[in-house]
# Entry
Amino acid sequence: MKFTLRKKKLFIWSLSGAMLLGTVLPLLADDTSTAQTFDFFLQEAQVTTASRRAQKISDSPVAIDVITAEDIAKSGAQNIADLLRYRVGMNVEEATGVEGNRQVVNVRGLPDEFAQSLLVLVDGRSIVSPEDEGVFWEDIPVALDDIERIEIVRGPNSALYGSNAGQGVINIITKKPGDDASLTAREEVGSYDSHRGYGSADLSTAIGDIRVSLQQSAREQSWPAPSGAPIADGNQDSNFLRANTRLDSKPWQGGELEAFVGGNKDTYSIPNVLGVSGSDYNSDYEMLKLTHNVNDGLSLELNGSRDDVNRGEALAIRETQYNGELLAHLSDFDERSQAVVGSSYRDVLDDSAWAFNEGVPGAGAQAGNHVGRVFASEAYSFTDWATLSAAASYEHSDTGGDQGAYQGALILKPVDDWSLRLSASQAPTLPSLLNRDSSLILPEGSSPNMFGPGTNANLYLHVGGSDMHASTVSSYEATVSGSLLDNRIGIDVTPYQMDIAGYPEFNTLNTVVTTPDGINYNVTQNLDYVNNYSIVARGVETALTFKPILGTKIEINHTYEDVNDNDKLGGNQRYFYTTPWNIVNGIINTELLWGFNAGLNINWTGQHFAYLSSRGTSVFVPDQARLDLRLGYTLFKGAEIYVLGQNMLQEYRVESSDGTAVPQAYYAGLNLAWGGN
# Structure
């Protein structure tokens, strides 16, 4: 499905004109019946991730951003990475890394496929893989339609969340079951033989005030081939199936029980870094959360979860995690004092026939980690305009040893609607199990004809460093935020400096070849990881938000960042100019006239050298722009048809060193909903 350049420009200008018309004309009318709704629309968002308790964004001790369900619906995003791309402080690239992981996502600095100090949560449950301390973004077991909001903490928050949160926290919060039964369905088709279907059932009952939701979603999609190859349909396919069940109830006065059960089954033909064309990812999880409000000044929260993940093909890893956490929320002195204390424990076991076998093909071995921690935080408001916040934690783990974390912030509100936050923090990270303990043997014949026709090679790849230790992330930042015209205009500016001591990177690749019989070869590659790098990231994050009328929100944000490293071995600065100095985003969501709605996302990323550590390669990426447009029309309540275009400014673009092509694509879809509130 392709447009000519002239038709494409006409489409863009027509949609832009419709959006402008829908924004301006309602301003000419005096509809007082919507005044209260508009006041609610202008209210400041509430967040829970920053301090592990509900609070206004302006009271947060860390820089934080929120993506709402309405933002998601109007964005036309195909996955979570699409949503994150346009937010301030985020760096998102399409890249094919280990096991076909198709997105590189990071908060501040170091855009690499496995950001070892970025914590990603679903309803407070970690989905970070301890095997590589990264996230498989395509395999997150939540559909976009199930998400209530996404909270993005920019900067360290390890004192509250543990060693993974050295650069930031992304918390994906799903929708609670509704009070009324509802059904929703979506069917979407597009270019490159793309197809996506979605369906959900939201059921409720008055028995014991129990509410239950069931969601299931599936997607099929094709991408063009990597590198500069001609664009063709069906070169890389993916199939995703998600199923989730959530139960909420109030079994006693002041108590609430939440239970989550779900999983996903994903297959895709995207070639991974080991050359295997295709992979699969199957997982299931269970989570139980119990909350009890003892009195006005004390509430208790108990969380427990289990995750089981199977990743096939090259590494054949089965990973099992058990997590438990106990929290107490305390409030005193007329709520001037807000404290959180808690403890947590995590048990991880990785089992693989190839990844941890210490040189015995197919023998299978295990690697694991045990992490226990205690933490506490306190926010005290001395006056109505001054709050001091502090948090600290102590953690012990098999891979990181004994580590401490701290963070503190002073929040000043000298005048109405304006605040100044000064903060500092120090956070540890954990070496991944692959960095420390892996010894990978691929099957015989994994590298056929490496030494000529008719030969086979067993590839033994030892990846690890027994002296690997935890990196330390230190951060210093200031935020000025405020609003004008009764919160119709919002301003947020955050300059920061982040220092990472002992960042892990590979040191040497030593190859040894033996020929037992002249036909079958044994190839041994020793890839040692060391903590040689000291990295400094400096930047300024600026976001401007406009809400001119009800249903219209405009955001313009700019991220400036400069990253440099100090290679102690000398002569090899891998992280110099690997992050764009400038990223500019524009986001417009608006309700138009006559039942139409529209969303526009535009991104401009400055030139840089994109680097993938798993491949050890970098490529120069010039200045690039991306434009996504979505136009919807409500036929009647619960029914919407829509069209959207992604990457509309060029036929395809390449933004990573592996050459993965990001195509220009168009989609048309139908949303149906029955029942609900």
Notes: Helices lie at 5-24, 35-42, 69-75, 80-84, 158-161, 433-437. Confidence is low (pLDDT under 50) at residues 1-7, 9-15, 18-30, 227-234.
